């Protein structure tokens, strides 16, 4: 019998479209709110712009107006169903929510979803979550689709490690740095920490017995820009606490 990790079901491939034109690809995941579900991904995925400069990511200055989200098909493990989700209202206003205080300076958005009877959402905040210790140098995994939707329908688990002190984010520095070499298509990926058998918890206590322990760490948004081809290969990740603040704040973008 094949066993699939529940977190492999959380990460979803997404495609950015302007009408019927495919622009780019990325990753997202579902978050369960009090009255509806949300797709969590990066601001630059839904806006088509660099959050630091405001410049268009596409050489044609095209901006997406809808996403195709490849959800897990209900009752068919590994099968995906593509559903289009509008990014803007008929008046052209953004449907997505940004951070209530920092706006697009946090490269994460929450896009409200309608329910689909033929898909399973697998919200990441409803999955087993252990209060694992987070310390600089520890391994993390970025769960995404660097090559788009593969034949198996599951994400790549890209190993990395905390390159900065995670506990200073977001209070001192909004984002964290992850030491990993990622590829296009992984923007918007969930970042998790995983341990096996013996688990170091916050406060330096030890837990034993459970086969695995997993903690949702945050949202990946790609590599730090660098002109040098021999750069340090640092990726940017946004702490998990910012996601819940975006969902609870429900502040629409004013782009």
TrEMBL record:
Task: Provide the protein name.
Answer: Trypsin-like peptidase domain-containing protein
Q: What is the lineage of its organism?
A: Bacteria, Pseudomonadati, Pseudomonadota, Alphaproteobacteria, Hyphomicrobiales
